[in-house]
Amino acid sequence: NGRTVKLLVLPATNIFDAVAQAAVRLRVSDVVVGESANLSAEDQAHLMGEAWDRTPHDRALTTRFVVLSANGSVRRFTRPVARGH
Fold first, then answer.
1. What is the per-residue pLDDT for 11?
2. By the 8 A CB rule, do 11 and 21 touch?
3. Residue 79 and residue 62: Cα distance in Å, rounded?
């Protein structure tokens, strides 16, 4: 709500849990990440969804997960994505 974060570094053993916890604490509307060299955007969204579900939060908090690819495309996810879909 009115707070802009330009860069946030999150040291963690599970980055998805760290991002989910930070997003809840900051009550962000969007989590924006770069495309992974190892995971598809769908797999990143799935793992983020699992972490989101593990993180205690107000169920009214709606946060989109946005993946920016190197070719300029943008994928937006509003709920966890099942693997293989």
1. 76
2. no
3. 9
* Sheet (strand 74-77) strand order: 30-34, 64-68, 74-77
Phi and psi at 21, nearest 5°, equal -65, -45
Q: Which residue has the higher pLDDT, 54 or 5?
A: 54
> What whole-number distance in Å separates Cα of residue 62 and Cα of residue 30?
9
pLDDT digits (tens, 9 = 90+) for 53-70: 999 988 888 899 999 999
**What are the φ/ψ torsions at residue 25 (nearest 5 degrees)?**
-60, -40
Nearest to 21 by CA among 54, 66, 65: 54
